């Protein structure tokens, strides 16, 4: 049995949109490109055919992957301050005198550049279950960083 994947409602919608675009837009265009390349004759020296076939295999793999994730995805709702940090929460922390806001999301939604972190990340692991006022220490490439939780939404 497949492992349940916890995600926010927004994360599931994003994956559904990606799947829809791949299945209904990109895949038909790629299949048409492959058919046109196939009609060009000798397939052994047809680089467009080889490239289109390779792209289609990759695309089909991504489609399968998204379908599997969406089959096992469950929406997680933020429990609010009373329950502490968990998936779906927005956490305001202070580190080195600076305030940062992180969204705790499922692993499939993680995007550290946009401050969306999963509970599997080092900072996510340290924050999950903690409450406002708690302090956590996280090992980073620059050394240990101390975070103080200022707010949980």
TrEMBL record:
It comes from the Bacteria. Residues 84-153 form the Transcription elongation factor GreA/GreB C-terminal domain. Residues 5-75 form the Transcription elongation factor GreA/GreB N-terminal domain. One of its GO terms (molecular function) is DNA binding. Pfam families: GreA_GreB, GreA_GreB_N. Keywords: DNA-binding, Elongation factor, Protein biosynthesis, Transcription, Transcription regulation. InterPro entries: GreA/GreB_C_sf, TF_GreA/GreB_CS, Tscrpt_elong_fac_GreA, Tscrpt_elong_fac_GreA/B, Tscrpt_elong_fac_GreA/B_C, Tscrpt_elong_fac_GreA/B_fam, Tscrpt_elong_fac_GreA/B_N, Tscrpt_elong_fac_GreA/B_N_sf. Belongs to the GreA/GreB family. This is Transcription elongation factor GreA. It comes from Candidatus Woesebacteria bacterium RBG_13_46_13.
């Amino acid at each position: 049995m497949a492992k349940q994947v916890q995600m926010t409602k927004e994360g599931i919608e994003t994956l559904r949109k990606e799947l829809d675009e791949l299945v209904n837009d990109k895949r038909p265009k790629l299949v048409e490109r492959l058919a046109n390349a196939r009609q060009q004759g000798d397939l052994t020296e047809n680089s467009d055919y080889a490239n289109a076939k390779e792209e289609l295999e990759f695309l089909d793999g991504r489609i399968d992957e998204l379908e599997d994730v969406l089959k096992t995805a469950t929406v997680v709702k933020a429990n609010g301050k009373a329950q502490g940090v968990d998936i779906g929460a927005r956490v305001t922390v202070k580190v080195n005198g600076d305030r940062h806001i992180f969204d705790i999301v499922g692993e499939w939604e993680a995007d550290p550049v946009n401050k969306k972190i999963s509970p599997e990340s080092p900072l996510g692991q340290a924050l999950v279950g903690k409450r406002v006022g708690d302090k956590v220490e996280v090992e980073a490439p620059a050394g240990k960083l101390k975070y103080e939780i200022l707010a949980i939404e």
